[in-house]
Amino acid sequence: MFIFWSIAVFIFGLIIGSFLNCLIWRMYKEETMGGRSYCPHCRQIITWYDNIPLLSFLLLRGRCRQCRIKISWQYPLVEFFTALLFLITFQTLKDNNQLFLVLGHDWFLIITLIIVFVYDLRWQLIPMNIIWVMSGVIFVFNLFLGVPWWLLLLFAAIGAVFFLVQYLLTKKKGIGEGDIWLGLFLGLAFPNASQLLLIMFLAYCVGAIVSLVLMSLKKKGLKSVIALGPFLALGAIITLIWGSSIINWYLGLF
Predict the structure, then answer these.
(1) SS (HEC) of 87-150
(2) Do residues 145 and 245 both lie within one domain?
(3) H helices within the chain, ranges in order?
(4) Which of 1, 17, 46, 178 is spaced 20 to 30 Å from 118 by Cα?
(5) Angle at 16 between CA 14 and CA 17, to 5 degrees
(6) What is the pTM of this model?
(7) Which residue range is the domain that position 51 belongs to?
(8) Confidence of residue 197 (pLDDT cuts 50, 70, 90)
């Protein structure tokens, strides 16, 4: 039975990933979510059999059936990793007596982080409308999970102020306003000092490594802008899934 539910969760994750791809594109183009999916190149409506998550991309060999232009690898990757992350969190929490609440919290968190990762990576913008809505959703989930409201607000303030200080010190050039709201969201999602510190540590370490690699390859310069959102999203996903193990391992060194 567990195998059946694992397969169902993975398929559900693929469907959600497909929806996220559509949502990300239409948010950027400032379009409504109404109407059927279309090819961003030739604008032809995509038939249902060409819109099956992951499978259609493989069958079409990564090209639009109409115009034959290559489909971005973003689409299958977002679908696959959404499904994979949904499955990992489901399998981790299969014996939790608050399964549905915790899964709801974790899946909405994953959805938000994937949107932030892709959107900020592609366009160097944090989709603040999504952050505002999801902050409210995560706040409510954490309340039902028994986290005191004052603790949620405290860590939301800590997360926001952490980036606000950098925003002011760099005269709005080091990071953007969206990072402040993302910090607030992360504080609400992770009302725990160790987890929040781990997210920041991972984000800045990975960001520094990637920046050095890009500069060594002459893809970026010292004054180039590198989006912070994708690294924060990655750090938060790692912390969500493996954070407790990493923190316990680190504390065990002393």
Answers:
(1) HHHHHHCCCCCCHHHHHHHHHHHHHHHHHHHHHHHHHCCCCHHHHHHHHHHHHHHHHHCCCCHH
(2) yes
(3) 2-28, 55-59, 74-92, 99-123, 128-144, 149-169, 177-189, 193-216, 229-251
(4) 46
(5) 60
(6) 0.93
(7) 1-92
(8) very high
Q: CA 33 to CA 49: how far, in whole Å?
A: 20
* 224 and 181 belong to one structural domain: yes
Fill in the amino acid letter for 204: Y
Is the pLDDT score of 97 beyond 90? no
Longest dimension (CA), the chain: 61
Residue 234, token pair as written in the block: 């990655």
In the block, tokens 């690294």 appear at 231
Is 80 in the same domain as 143?
A: no
- Which residue in this structure is represented by tokens 């993302």? 182
* Cα 205 to Cα 213: distance, rounded to the nearest angstrom: 12
Indicate the DSSP class of residue 39.
Answer: -
